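Weekly structure sync, notes
Attendees: PL (lead), two postdocs, one rotation student
Agenda item 3: pending single-chain targets
PL asked that the sequence for the first pending target be pasted directly into the notes so everyone works from the same version. It is reproduced below exactly as submitted, 150 residues in total.
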Amino acid sequence: MSVIRLTKAFTFEMAHALPGHDGPCKHIHGHTYELFVTITGNPIGDPSSPKFGMIMDFKDIKSLVREAVTDEFDHALVMRRDTAEMLKDSSGNVLFHRLIVTDFQPTTENLVTEFARRLQEKLPQHVKLHSLRLRETMTSYAEWFAQDNQ
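Predicted structure, written out during the meeting:
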């Protein structure tokens, strides 16, 4: 049986800030992100399986990525923990309802690494995460490859 790579693309909106950055990205700003998820595996060879001939159904990939990434990050503001305090009013109330606080600087590089971790935890055993591409702008993206992270 051949090993096949299967890719599904996702789009979501997200804002972030990069405190300490030496350019305008230190300010809160947003992007339309594109996430390309590529898995590898052997197509299921059991003719009695409803997934016969598939590595994984595209709708199952969509559900998994939504659960692990896009449902949480879409239309959210991502801030590093030590800078998120500035997003509270004088009473200590958070000013943004969809605030994700991380222990890392929310760069594209760190986000794609976090997404890989989350997805690897949820994939079925017979499927492996091959790569992710996280496009931040039309001309800029970060890639994560399993072979580089073994």
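Discussion points:
- The first strand starts at residue 4 and ends at 16.
- The radius of gyration is 18 Å.
Action: rotation student to compare against the earlier draft before next sync.
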